[in-house]
Design a protein that fits this description.
The structure holds two protein chains of two kinds. By secondary structure, chain A is mainly β. Chain A has no helices and two strands. The radius of gyration of chain B is 15 Å and the shape is globular. Classes of the chains: A mainly beta, B mainly beta. Chains A and B meet through strand 2 of A and strand 1 and strand 3 of B.
Chain lengths: ~20, ~190
């Protein structure tokens, strides 16, 4: 899986990486 | 993965092993992770930080309001950092501070003298129009202003949590956010 892809942490909350 | 995040028992736990939220040169990209949700118009984010362990002196964690979820997005971050005390090289107290990017083309800005704090500590950022206010509190009631600044963000932004630990090669920095509240102004 792409570690930099956004994914859901819990309903309504997303983890994104940038930079 | 620069940042790992989990949610359990009402708490967010973030583990950071790299990344850096830049402040000196605002044309440098951040290398951070961000756990976020949307916030439209005026509002706020507030959280109680109950754990802040194993962060290097260039590491940090906090709440952030951010215009765009891309490397050069405008933001304000109310944060904790591990500070170096000149006369006490073995002591690494925690301090409350801010970082922000007001314009992509300009120098960034940070509070020059962060305030030393003890856990738990509450962090808050409020937005009213283009005015952003970062504060912290030892009890969630009495607040101390860290910085108020105009930042030209759009109407729809992201509110969330971030952590980074630039030189944390051997250890994760771990931060726990309890009772995270994102509120839209009435």
């Amino acid at each position: 899986a792409d570690p930099f892809a956004s994914r859901s942490v819990v309903a309504g909350w997303t983890l994104s990486h940038f930079g | 993965t620069p940042l790992q995040a989990t949610f359990a028992d009402g708490k967010f736990t973030l583990q950071a092993d790299s990344g850096m939220l830049f402040f000196k040169r605002s044309d440098e990209a951040d290398g951070v992770g961000f756990v976020h949700r949307s916030l439209e118009g005026d509002g706020s984010i507030m959280a109680k930080v109950t754990k802040f362990d194993d962060f290097h002196v260039w590491g940090g964690a906090g709440v952030m309001l951010r215009d765009e979820n891309k490397p050069l997005g405008l933001y304000m971050c109310a944060m904790l950092e591990t500070v170096h005390v000149k006369d006490q090289p073995d002591q690494h107290p925690i301090a409350a501070s801010i970082r922000m990017r007001r314009q992509v083309s300009n120098e960034g800005f940070r509070v020059q003298r962060p305030d030393q704090v003890k856990l738990p500590v509450w962090l808050k950022i409020e937005r009213q129009g283009q005015t952003f206010r970062s504060s912290y509190s030892p009890d969630g009631k009495e607040w101390k202003l860290l910085k108020e600044m105009e930042i030209p963000m759009g109407p729809k932004i992201s509110a969330g949590l971030t952590a980074w630990n630039r030189y944390g090669k051997t250890k994760f920095g771990t931060v726990v956010f309890d009772d995270v509240q994102v509120r839209k102004a009435p």
